[in-house]
């Protein structure tokens, strides 16, 4: 029997969506790191580094943030590689850790007996986790368009649809599809280039929160995911609301590949300086990054993906399909020097340091077990640290007993 043309089109469309969903689920269930021989290796507590460069008050804030995230969470159990971690067990361990730190114990000793340490290993130094940084920029903006403020910051459009996979089956990853309705089908949302074209031709159809001075300001805000906008009405927190779900392409990698900037100068300050001198080429290369981020106003900030305010030099972004929310980690790495000491590092600057981190956030470029994005704080000097941080580390997952 020959199917009618419209029915064939609907069948092909449905099949395409199924294939798309299957591919997404496959790559989230089996991230590259899990397929590359990465495992958790038990470590004796005496071999752990001592985290003594963070203020105890900051760590306690981080613990309370983890507790709030877990208490608000929907699940009672979480998967960590081939292990199951219960919310109750993790909450109990974190509450006991906070009590010990309040009692004056040093970090490493306070962890003993509450957590079992496991190092994330792959067998060579290139298999060690890569740590980068992000921060909360402070940008000058305006609530109305003018000749000095012509770059719009968009709120989430009404036609942007989110589908949470875990809402349909708890065994599916805690990930989302972003798209729009076309006829009776869900299709990928508009790319960055298509959104920019809509802004040129149909600006009134898109929701604008505020206006920035130049496209580099907008890119900085979209990369960091949150910021503070200073207007003539005062300061306001602005935060990630959604993305178009399209693939992310790093502008820095494009500049490196085209030999526009050398590796040793590939930080945000250099990229911004180049962008402001070469606006045409900047916009041309930026169009190759299909990812577009939409924002919303907040009364506090910055807020991580689990809905809680994150803590400088304690909160970090991990792949949420690999690591449970609120989970603590010890990492040992070399921090880059900055022109001024970052206030959240207890007076220490640069060099080999050990940090107690908490899983409080995620990011579009943070994929697999070997990626960490450390929240460095607010403002210029935090941005300097975050922009220079791109180092390998030793990473110890702390599993509650």
Keywords:
alpha+beta, 401 residues, Barwin-like endoglucanases, single chain, 12 helices, six-stranded mixed beta sheet, 19 strands, Ribosomal Protein L25, Chain P
Quick recap of the structure?
The protein is an alpha+beta fold. Helices cover 31% and strands 29% of the residues. It has a six-stranded mixed β-barrel, surrounded by four helices. The chain has a six-stranded mixed β-sheet with strand order 7-11-6-12-13-14, with helices on one face.
End-to-end Cα distance = 62 Å
Mean pLDDT: 87
Low-confidence stretches: 22-35
Task: Count the E strands.
Answer: 19
Largest sheet: 6 strands, mixed, barrel
Kindly describe this structure.
The protein has 401 residues and is an alpha+beta fold. It folds into three domains: 199 residues, Barwin-like endoglucanases, CATH 2.40.40; 128 residues, Ribosomal Protein L25, Chain P (Beta Barrel); 35 residues, no CATH class. It has twelve helices and 19 strands. Strand 9 and strand 10 form a beta hairpin. Helix 3 packs antiparallel against helix 4. It is globular and about 60 Å long. The protein starts with a helix and ends with a strand. About 3% of the residues have low confidence.
Layout of secondary structure:
Layout: H1 5-29, H2 32-35, E1 39-42, H3 56-72, E2 77-80, E3 83-86, H4 87-102, H5 107-111, E4 115-121, E5 130-136, E6 138-142, E7 151-154, E8 161-164, H6 165-168, E9 176-182, E10 185-188, H7 192-201, E11 208-212, H8 215-224, E12 226-231, E13 234-243, H9 251-257, H10 268-277, H11 279-286, E14 293-298, E15 315-317, E16 328-335, E17 351-361, E18 371-378, H12 380-388, E19 390-400
Helix pairs in contact: 3-4
């Amino acid at each position: 029997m020959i199917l009618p043309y419209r029915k064939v089109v609907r069948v092909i469309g449905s099949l395409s969506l199924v294939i798309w969903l299957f591919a997404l689920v496959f790559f989230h269930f089996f991230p590259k790191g899990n397929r590359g021989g990465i495992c958790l290796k038990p470590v004796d507590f005496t071999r752990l580094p001592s985290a003594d460069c963070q203020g105890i008050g900051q760590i306690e804030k981080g613990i309370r943030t983890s507790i709030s995230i877990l208490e608000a969470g929907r699940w009672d159990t979480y998967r960590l590689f081939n292990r199951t971690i219960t919310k109750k067990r993790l909450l109990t361990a974190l509450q006991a850790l906070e009590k010990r730190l309040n009692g004056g114990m040093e970090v490493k000793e306070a962890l003993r007996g509450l957590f079992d340490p496991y190092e994330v290993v792959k067998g060579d130094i290139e298999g060690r986790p890569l740590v980068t940084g992000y921060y909360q920029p402070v940008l000058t903006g305006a609530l109305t368009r003018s000749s000095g403020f012509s770059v719009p910051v968009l709120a989430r459009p009404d036609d942007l649809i989110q589908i949470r996979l875990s809402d349909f089956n708890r065994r599916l990853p805690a990930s989302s599809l972003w798209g729009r309705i076309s006829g009776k089908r869900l299709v990928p949302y508009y790319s960055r280039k298509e959104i920019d074209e809509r802004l040129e031709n149909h600006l009134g159809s898109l929701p604008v929160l505020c206006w920035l001075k130049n496209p580099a300001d907008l890119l900085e805000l979209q990369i960091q995911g949150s910021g503070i906008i200073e207007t003539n009405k005062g300061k306001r927190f602005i935060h990630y609301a959604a993305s178009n779900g399209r693939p992310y392409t790093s502008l820095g990698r494009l500049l490196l590949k085209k030999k526009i900037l050398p590796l040793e100068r590939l930080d945000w300050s250099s990229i911004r300086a180049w962008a402001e001198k070469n606006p045409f080429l900047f916009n041309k290369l930026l169009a190759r990054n299909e990812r577009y981020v939409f924002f919303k106003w907040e009364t506090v900030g910055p807020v991580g993906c689990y809905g809680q305010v994150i803590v400088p030099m304690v909160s970090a972004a991990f792949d949420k399909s690999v690591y449970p929310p609120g989970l603590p980690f010890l990492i040992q790495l070399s921090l880059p020097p900055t022109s001024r000491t970052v206030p959240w590092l207890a007076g220490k600057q640069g060099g080999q340091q050990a940090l107690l981190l908490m899983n409080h956030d995620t990011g579009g470029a943070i994929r697999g077990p070997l990626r960490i994005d450390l929240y460095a704080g607010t403002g210029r000097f935090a941005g300097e640290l975050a922009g220079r941080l791109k180092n390998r580390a030793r990473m110890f997952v702390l599993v509650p007993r």
